[in-house]
Amino acid sequence: MGFWSFLIIFCFLSFYIHWYGTTKALKINEDITKGSKLPSLPSYYGTYSLLWLLLPSSIILICWFFFKPYIIDIFLKESIPLNLVDNFKGNPSMLIDTIKATNPEKIFPGTNPLIIDSAAYYQTLTTNSDSYVFLLVLVVGLISSLVSLRKVSTFFRARQAVEKANINLLIFCSVIAIITTIGIVFSLIFEAVRFFERVPFFDFLFGLAWSPQTAIREDQIASQGSFGAIPIFTGTLLITLVAMAVAIPVGLLSAIYLAEYARPTVRKTFKPILEILAGVPTVVYGFFAAITVGPFLKDFVSSLGLSMASESALAAGGVMGIMIIPFISSLSDDVITSVPTSLRDGSYAMGATKSETIKKVILPAALPGIVGAILLAISRAIGETMIVVMAAGIAANLTANPLEAVTTVTVQIVTLLVGDQEFDSAKTLAAFALGITLFFVTLLLNLYALKIVQKYRERYE
Amino acid sequence: MSKNTELISKSLEKRHRSEKRFRFFGILGIGTAVIFLITILSSIFVEGKGAFKSTFIQLEINFDQEIIDPNKTNNPEEFKFANYKLLINDALKNYFPEVKDRKTFRDLSVFISSAAEQNLMKLAMENIEIIGESKKIWLLASSTIDVIHKNPQMENFLEEDRLINNIQMSWFNALKKNGDIKFGLNTNFLSNADSTEPEQAGILGSMLGSFFTLLVTLLLCFPVAVASGVFLEELAPKNKFTDFIEININNLAAVPSIIFGLLGLAIFLNVMHLPRSAPIVGGMVLALMTLPTIIISTRASLKAVPPSIREAAIGLGATKFQAVTHHVLPQSMPGILTGTIIGMSQALGESAPLLMIGMVAFIVDIPGSLTDSATVLPVQIYLWKSTAARGFVELTAAGIMVLLTFLVIMNSVAVFVRQKFEKKW
After folding, report:
1. Mean predicted confidence (pLDDT) in A182-191
2. Does ipTM exceed 0.95?
């Protein structure tokens, strides 16, 4: 049974079960001439039996989706003839990969016929197993829904049962957010621990040299790569500083102007225009930084008589700053407009000009909120990937000069993990150690910033 | 006039000047931001507008039967095995009879793209009567010639900086003088997948990849997000557990996107052994990433429905669950849909997590299902940007133009839905 035919039969079955449950309830209602009728509306009985169709089938399908590779591997391992295992050069898992990679219709000349047989068996196994599972789903679902229909009687409150099931479903959907967080934390910690088994924790955190090479052969000279992350952290910090130097003045000044000076029509046109900057995908900024800003800055700086790397921190950070502008401006705008009017009026009544009111009264009052906005923007800048991948360097230089090329945490994660990877080397595991550092730093920044903003809101509400 | 008034009126001028200065700074801030936006968009337009046309060269092709159909079968299926490169080479030799030795001829043969051979084959197979005749045909030029044709100032560059040598330049000028070189519409760009040759590379493959990925994202994310938004806003009791869920959602919204990529790599690929580079895995990762966005907008639009609606429903005997599903949820649907479209447009522009799960592979085939290897629009842009060949720069910018067009369309639909259907209470 193919997927589409299964889907059609399944939909048809669902409609039929719902209709059957409803009509059954209607019929019972008709038969009851004395006393009270069924306690719930007839369609709830239909929905109840439908739930008993959907629940077991979705459980089976989800389990199958996640465990299919394992189950098929077990069957495949059992089917492999013994003499093939003995004759194969390499470990058994490689043999299984070879079998999976072999296409029985397009064979390389000289392939072992036993491997071809196994590959053909593997292909039939994958397609047949799907059909068996689909059949199983239909049978189990049908049986459980038919059994559930036996409960239809005046003693059974179907609405309560249906609503309870639905609310449990909603709770399950809400819990997915928690599951995701747990998944992130555990997958990162699990791989990072494996990394710290090879590289000591403090060497990673405080080491000054980063060159993630690992040996191909064990006797190789200089086989131990060094995993000191300080140059990466300073690089991230440098680029973030450059970004903030662009974003904070521009974002804050625009927010002040839009909130305090601009006429409503001006505000209405310019606020969305600023927000377009937030909607532009980051690859676009990356392209802009690498193709337009980088060369332009390089020409400009060399005309001043200085030398500059073509993948400088200045270009990447500056363009990242442009991306961050709308975050700072829209958050600060909210904060400034929520400062109570009474504070403004008091200041005007004392004879202050508008700019004096803003500088001396509104900004100090709004400061916690603005700091929160800036912290959120910093966390955004630290985690930003595409701009730095496209416009910043790969080599880890320990420098504070924005004209030189530096690298960031995200760039390193991408360069370590894109391409061929084997999961036992310290090189790939280092990416997860960097990932967990990134996760916790941004998490702390976010929690702290959200707390500040929350407190600020409570003060004026 | 008292001394104080004098002092004040003296300082007033200074204070007003400072007021004006401050106001000017505000305008400067907005102006800078707007100028940045205009610069970005216009630089992309300037870089990318050339990619929609490509260069064609007209040559007199002799459809020699000896080459196309040596066995004289007249069966179009047999034409597939012919070497059409020979036809093009003969035509080039006829056009430039002065080229005699093989080394110089190699410089000449790079003028025509290898895609032209395919076109000739198709032409011969469809018009069998053309065999044995000569015909003037426009052939797709190679990317190098295309770059020279689009940037006429390159003729004055030094030979080393120009991509082609002086002899090639003279051939190019000869073609130009005879009117045998022209611009045509670049049909490859919208109908092909990626290629190593810039003039043959197209965006259709990654567009379909994006489509499949977003389809998975939408199917997974929308029901879950709406369900969780409804639960948290309408039905959840206020306790530590629901508070914890809320904190989690707010934090997930701010987690860097690349972390979701690491999650996908560690769990979906390494633990569950789902296929690498497949839209289904990409869609799952993006769904986890977009979930908080849609939950937050669902909650906001549920909050906007006035409590009187709920009270009326409950007063008429509906249960809380019925009041929500029959009345509150339908009323807040426009807001939820707007939030969903905005979340989807974010997912469309996202690329960092997809790099982690292998959607950066070089893929020549157009994907046809959820488990085929594929790439998506922003990742295709990244791939083209990282390619060294000169012709890919304008393709990158053109790819960005396509991506931005989709984003503009999605966001206008969102604005339209909001303005047309959203109720003001």
Report:
1. 91
2. no
Distance between CA atoms of residues B407 and A280, nearest Å: 8
Do residue B29 and residue A250 have CB atoms under 8 angstroms apart? yes
Contacts of B411 in chain A (CB under 8 A): 279
Domains and CATH numbers, chain A: 3-156 (no CATH), 226-460 (1.10.3720.10)
Q: Of B164, B197, B230, which one is at a domain's C-terminal end?
A: B197
- In chain B, whose CA is at the least distance from the CA of A359? B22
Task: Note whether B172 and B183 are same-domain residues.
Answer: yes
Range of the domain at B43: 3-49
Do B246 and B137 lie in a common domain? no
All residues of chain B having their beta carbon less than 8 Å from the beta carbon of residue A183 are 263, 267
Structural domains of chain B, count: 3
Q: What is the DSSP letter of B112?
A: B
Sign of CA dihedral B114, B120, B123, B126: negative
What gap in Å lies between CA B214 and CA B343, rounded to an integer?
Answer: 10
Do B352 and B287 belong to one domain? yes
Q: List B residues 333-352 in contact with A (Cβ-Cβ < 8 A).
A: 345, 348-352
Which of B28, B260, B262 best probes binding to A when mutated, by most A CB atoms within 10 angstroms? B262
Residues of A in Cβ contact (< 8 Å) with B295: 177
Mean pLDDT value across residues A361-373? 91
Nearest CB partner across the interface for B382, out of A166, A188, A283: A283
Residue B14 amino acid letter: K
Name the pLDDT band for B95 (thresholds 50, 70, 90): confident
Q: Does B411 touch chain A (CB under 8 A)?
A: yes
Separation of alpha carbons B148 and B228, rounded Å: 57
Decide if B302 contacts B332 (C-beta within 8 A). yes
Mean pLDDT score, B190-194 = 85
Shared domain check, B249 and B217: yes
A163: nearest CA partner in chain B? B321
Contact A406, A391 (CB under 8 A): no
List the 43-82 stretch of B: residues with Cβ below 8 A of A. 43-44, 47
Q: Provide CB contacts within 8 A for B143, sequence distance 6+.
A: B113, B197, B198, B199, B389, B390, B391
Local confidence band at B49 (pLDDT 50, 70, 90 cut-offs):
confident
- pLDDT for A386 equals 92
Task: Name the residue among B40, B35, B51 with its Cα closest to residue B392.
Answer: B51
Q: Given this model, what pLDDT does residue A184 score?
A: 92
Q: Which residues of chain A neighbour B38 with C-beta distances below 8 Å?
A: none
Same domain, B94 and B216: no
Residues B146 and B90 in one domain: yes
Task: Read off the pLDDT of residues A404-452 as tens digits, 9 standing for 90 and up.
Answer: 888 999 999 998 888 666 666 778 888 899 999 999 999 999 989 888 8
State the DSSP code for A395. S
A211 residue type, one letter: S
Q: Shortest Cα distance from A190 to chain B (angstroms)?
A: 9
Give Cα A39 to chain centroid, integer Å.
46
Residue A188 has pLDDT above 80, yes or no: yes
Most confident of A30-39, A43-52, A388-397, B84-93: A43-52
**Do residue B352 and residue A414 have CB atoms under 8 angstroms apart?**
yes
Pair B182, B210 in one domain: no
Cβ contacts of A273 within 8 Å, gap of 6 or more: B33, B34, B37
The pLDDT tens digits of the residues spanning B227-254 come to 999 999 998 888 898 888 988 898 898 8
Question: What is the distance in angstroms between the Cα of A442 and the nearest Cα belonging to chain B?
Answer: 7
Is the domain of B178 the same as that of B293? no
Residue B74: strand, helix, or coil: coil
Cα–Cα distances in angstroms (integers) from residue A435 to residues A180, A306, B171, B356, in the given order? 15, 35, 55, 12
B417 near A CB under 8 A: no
